[in-house]
What does this fold into?
Amino acid sequence: MSLVKAQLISSDGGGTIEFMFNPNQLAFSQQIRLTSNEGARTGRGLPKVNFAYPEPCTLSIKDIIVDTYEEGGGKSVIAYIKQFEKALNFLESGENKQKRPPTYVFTWGEYQYIRCFITNLSYTLTMFLSDGTPVRAKLDLSLQEIDESTSQPGMGSPAKVDRGGDSRSSRLS
It folds into this structure.
């Protein structure tokens, strides 16, 4: 069995970003928005609270390793990091100016976890060659659910990709 790499797959111009090394954890977060009425109080004196709406799911992936040291030849990790930056700097120029950011589906193997935007990228360059070329980095990503997600943590499992030609996702039980 060969190693399957995690990917961010875009169908609207973002391209496919394949992770160099698979993440060691996926942290999902979701909450609901509540509204409170300042004048209405409970018997204990607390404001009465009403459900407003669910917030989108957020997926945080931390300590993503990018390493070009073993490849030799002094190849920088910056080119790899720029793939992620492109998702955040989509308004710079050209035909994508004034459009929405590229959308992605985070997949790993047979599972589609979340349809999303990349909302945050931070990285630390951690190893350099003697000429200053960065050859190792750690990235942290935040992905926010958009439209209809293939999964909601705590409310089901990730959708399994049907590789038999049927493009519809099915829920796992």
